[in-house]
Amino acid sequence: MKFDILTLFPAMFAGPFTESIIRRAVAGGRLELRLHDIRDYARDKHRVVDDAPYGGGDGMVMKVEPLAACIEAVRQERPRARVILTSPRGRVFDHALARELVHEEELIIICGRYEGVDERVRDLLVDDELSIGDFVLTGGELAAMVIVDAVARFIPGVLGSPGSAEADSFSDGLLEYPQYTRPVEYRGLRVPEELLSGNHAAVARWRRRKSLETTLRARPDLLRQVPLSPEDQEFLRGLGYQGEP
Questions:
Q1: Which pTM value belongs to this model?
Q2: Is 82 tagged catalytic?
Q3: Which among 78, 113, 153, 209 is annotated as catalytic?
Q4: Is 176 designated active site?
């Protein structure tokens, strides 16, 4: 899968894209990442990429000419690419959307900055807008990192274990169950006996119930969107859940 990131600050990606799973995915040829400095497409000697907004107001706006030129140059090499703008007005990025985007061969992600981009960039060149949440960032670079990381996990071969992505939190709409490893006991706290039993059915039942319990405690809103079996419903009612049966 091929990602092209359009940014004013390409150096910000050095750590997240050159360490851990992303680094291994790039080295293994499963993921291609290219960074493009939007300033390289400015027409003046000072490489100006922003200007004051028409109508007045605080802040600056990303100019249409350099950004459009950058997008169009990249699209010449990535003709099938879906162009995404990181933006507060976009769809909220989540697990399901990450799973959707992995089916794209090529993605171009524009990192918004300042007060936003000239609206004509949206009108002419953007296919989709994504937001990673209802909060303010200094720019879209962090959002782009989040999107790449989440999508990359679904690329076959990127994770060490083929089932890891499907077992993560949100994969079935619930938060993940607690995890343990050696030693069996630490400072008086033991690993639950179900996980030590060797009984796969007991382990699966314990994990499902802990996942339900964790979700009820931390994100009860998610339970309204998850298909619940009669056994799930009975277990949740025992914990005081008042949702629809």
A1: 0.88
A2: no
A3: 153
A4: no
